[in-house]
């Protein structure tokens, strides 16, 4: 097996390993066809973000501005990919917002990792896959929480706030990584990652509690889809 093939394999294994981890947290598993479709939209969203980023790149001289632009384009594209699941009857509880947001984010991450491996070689790409696969999923957690909040009659402003927080986390993470490796930047990176972990865990725990409440109220069984979905 060549080094590039190994890197591609690592990217695929990490992506689907994290996808399994997050999807299995849902007490009422989503249809595999809808998961696959959302994942595919996530992959396509990378193409959209990359194309727009390449088109706008010459217009921005500041590296920091490009980091912010990248965060805005990528998180907006992932949100649109996740939103394709909103009209499905299976999108029937708050947890689904997180499930589909993370699914779209991991589809995005896989495309990014594959193109990174083919463009920059196996060594850098392996580290990139290890660092960014989970990071993309956690970047999207706030927007997934916002999409889930639509079940509580939260409006577009709520979704916009979730997107803004996703962009902020993405911008902070990439901005820190693009700087020099000093004790201060390493500490800032550790704090940013810790914040992402805490937010993602909080969102999942809150939606798991809501899922248990809905299951008791509606008579749903754990591990099974509700009737009609």
Automatic annotation (TrEMBL):
Subcellular location: Cell membrane
Coiled coil regions, renumbered to chain: none
Membrane topology category: Multi-pass membrane protein
Main location, first listed in the record: membrane
Gene Ontology MF terms in the entry: metallopeptidase activity
Annotated protein name in UniProt: Protease PrsW
One biological process term in Gene Ontology: proteolysis
Signal sequence, renumbered to the chain: none
UniProtKB keywords: Cell membrane, Hydrolase, Membrane, Metalloprotease, Protease, Transmembrane, Transmembrane helix
Similarity-based family: Belongs to the protease PrsW family.
InterPro entries: Peptidase_PrsW_arch/bac (IPR023596), PrsW (IPR026898)
Cellular-component GO terms for this entry: plasma membrane
TM segment ranges: 6-23, 35-57, 98-119, 125-146, 183-205
Organism, as annotated: Deinococcus ficus
């Amino acid at each position: 097996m060549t080094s590039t093939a190994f890197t591609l394999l690592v990217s695929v294994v990490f992506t689907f390993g994290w996808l399994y981890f997050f999807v299995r947290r849902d007490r009422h598993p989503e249809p595999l066809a809808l998961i696959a479709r959302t994942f595919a939209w996530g992959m396509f969203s990378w193409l959209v973000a990359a194309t727009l980023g390449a088109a706008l790149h010459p217009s921005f001289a500041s590296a920091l501005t490009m980091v912010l632009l990248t965060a805005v384009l990528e998180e907006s594209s992932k949100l649109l990919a996740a939103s394709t699941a909103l009209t499905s009857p299976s999108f029937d509880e708050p947890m689904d917002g997180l499930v589909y947001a993370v699914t779209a984010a991991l589809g995005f991450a896989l495309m990014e990792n594959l193109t990174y491996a083919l463009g920059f070689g196996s060594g850098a790409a392996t580290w990139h896959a290890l660092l960014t696969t989970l990071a993309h999923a956690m970047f999207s957690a706030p927007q997934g929480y916002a999409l889930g909040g639509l079940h509580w009659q939260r409006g577009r402003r709520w979704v916009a706030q979730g997107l803004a927080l996703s962009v902020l986390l993405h911008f902070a993470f990439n901005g820190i990584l693009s700087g020099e490796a000093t004790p201060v930047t390493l500490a800032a990176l550790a704090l940013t990652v810790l914040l992402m972990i805490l937010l993602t865990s909080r969102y999942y725990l809150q939606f798991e509690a809501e899922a248990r409440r809905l299951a008791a109220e509606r008579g749903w069984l754990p591990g099974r889809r509700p009737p009609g979905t």
